[in-house]
Design goal:
The complex is a heterodimer of chains A (136) and B (114).
Chain A (H helix, E strand, L loop, with lengths): L1 E7 L8 H12 L4 H21 L2 E8 L3 E9 L6 H4 L9 H5 L7 H8 L2 E7 L3 E9 L1
Chain B lengths: L2 H7 L3 E4 L10 E4 L3 H4 L7 E5 L4 H9 L4 E4 L7 H9 L3 E4 L4 H10 L3 E2 L2
Parallel strand pairs in B: 2-3, 2-6, 3-4, 4-5
Antiparallel strand pairs in B: 1-5
Helix pairs in contact in B: 3-4
Classes of the chains: A alpha+beta (136), B alpha/beta (114).
């Protein structure tokens, strides 16, 4: 089963809409609520990252009986140093992002904590791909 | 602690989820940083915050937080209300500062998360 959602960069009113839709779907599929929470917390942080940093992005959710795989593929400034971005407390977020309750350098570490496999790749001035896999 | 007690202690107003007076809340967590809320795995928790925007509601939705208390007289928008009702999230508003609200609830026996 595959679901695709588009994310608009800079639009904080809509940030979380895709995560909300995914949560609804996973609940309907009777996925264990503890696993649902971990997946949607990770996805929501990642979705907020796309809204906060990129121009636009696409979220592809792939669900099989064994795993849930989510890819966030964005067009944006990219991440020059991924290891640094993974460090708790490191952030390049704008004051607008901070006003929204994010931007404290917790997003990527929080995503890592909540998924089984995390893969982040990025090309500066092109975009970032975040792939997260959770085994059921 | 019941929602009703929280409302009484803080002279607060329930703006969404009326009829949940007897819902039991065991823990309180006060933060304006939503990423910190998203690190928690605590049930029966009330989020106490001065951050009143859509991301507060979305954070509660993702983190399975049943109840949000807005302090400093922060107002809930129509859009926030709509999503909160859809997700069965109780929204409470009070005029006290975060420090004052937290102090009163702690004194009354509401437990911290950590």
């Amino acid at each position: 089963m595959e679901f695709i959602y588009e994310v608009e960069g800079g639009n904080f009113t809509k940030a979380g809409n895709a995560s909300s839709a995914v949560k609804k779907t996973l609940k309907q599929l009777n996925v264990n609520p503890k696993i649902v929470k971990r997946i949607v917390v990770a996805l929501y942080e990642a979705e907020v990252n796309v809204v906060a940093h990129a121009y636009k992005g696409v979220i592809t959710v792939n669900i099989t009986p064994e795993h849930i795989n989510i890819l966030l593929d964005d067009e944006g400034p990219g991440i020059p140093d991924i290891d640094l971005a993974m460090k708790e407390g490191f952030s390049t977020a704008s004051s607008k992002v901070r006003e929204m309750g994010f931007g404290a350098g917790m997003g990527l570490p929080n995503i890592k904590k909540n998924v089984d496999d995390l893969n982040v790749s990025s090309i500066v001035d092109k975009g970032t791909k975040v792939e997260m896999k959770t085994y059921l | 602690m019941k929602i009703k007690e929280i409302v009484d202690i803080l002279n607060a107003k329930v703006v969404s989820g009326s009829g949940c007076d007897n819902l039991d809340i065991a823990h309180g967590f006060a933060s304006d940083l939503m990423s910190d809320v998203l690190t928690l795995d605590t049930e029966k928790m009330i989020l106490i915050t001065g951050l009143a925007n859509m991301q507060t509601i979305r954070t509660a939705e993702m983190a399975d937080v049943q109840c949000i208390l807005f302090v400093r007289d922060k107002q809930v928008t129509e859009e926030m209300l709509e999503i909160a009702e859809e997700q069965d999230i109780i929204l409470i508003q009070c005029k006290y500062s975060m420090f004052n609200a937290v102090g009163k609830l702690y004194t009354a026996g509401l437990q911290p998360v950590y």
